[in-house]
Specification:
This protein has 362 residues and is α/β, with parallel strands linked by helices. 29% of the residues lie in helices and 30% in strands. The protein contains 10 helices and 17 strands. The strands form 3 sheets. Strands 1-16-17-15-14-11-12-13 form an 8-stranded mixed sheet, sandwiched between helices. The longest helix has 15 residues. The two termini are 43 Å apart.
Length: 362
Amino acid sequence: MALHRVNTDDYSEQLRQKAERLRAAYSDYTDLEPELFPSPPIHYRLRAEFKMWQEGGRVDYAMYRQGEYKKPFVIKEFTVGAELINDLMPKVLEAVNASELLRKRLFSTEFLTTLSNDALITLIYHKKLDEAWEAEARALQDKLGFPILGRSRKQKVVLERDYVTEQLQIGDRTYSYKQVEGSFTQPNGEICRSMIRWAKDVCEGSEGDLLELYCGNGNFTIPLCEHFDKVLATEISKVSVNAAQENIRANGVSNLNIVRLSSEEFTQAIDKVRPFRRLKDIDLDSYDFSTVLVDPPRAGLDADTCAMVARFPRILYISCNPETQLENLEELSKTHRVERFALFDQFPYTDHTESGILLVRK
């Protein structure tokens, strides 16, 4: 099925089939039916990236069909994209085609939006961006009312800002997030909100402290802080760590420390294999970790991190790849049992499935 156009009549059945496949895949570890968190059927993607197809002195948005990377097809509609993306797409395209400076050697266009109606448009080129380009881009920025970012090889031109701000209502609180262009953010805003709500429900009534690995910009970390005495979170991306620090201040969180470490480095640190200067102000022995939250990349947890995580009484494991989560479960199930099980439909109309499990020590 084309990513730009969907048949919403099929959605309920597709989700049911995903749930059945996931339940069957995890049947060796739990008899639970997965808690289902459906996506909005349309306008759910907050991020979009398009190739810009140049032909006959005109440029159009284009995508590739899977396996046909030399045959782009022009995008005329993008119903899976956020409404704000759909509103901005024709306006950007009209302006680019009206200006040779903006059109020439334009290679790609990216849209980053939020549920709270903020947006950033990134124009990516195969040419050096000069003052003349900047003047045209500023005029477009003023017309759109949203910031423009220019990129080329070894060049990044920030006209106003390189981030968007998200406001997520969770229960009776609103959480504010700075989301920087080029860093990871959840692509489906409503599913992101569902994931946070589920994680908060899982952690309701927790005691002790929380450790989080792969924390990104604090997406889960900040809302979960109210459920624990203290929280320590790690993230390897410097951009994400800097954004997380700003998000901590923006949300008035006082019991959270974020450190720039990979999961492998943190495993070495907690095992006292070697010291890290980045932990010089953190006393690991002062933490009473009762729960660990992991949301790793598609490769899942490496063997050493998996072994380290298995020491915790409670493991909250959110995964964008059930296959590698199952590989980790083969080890973690030796010491823990599955108490909660969830399916988050981040990408409807595809085979992609995201899952969440709460593991409790046997």
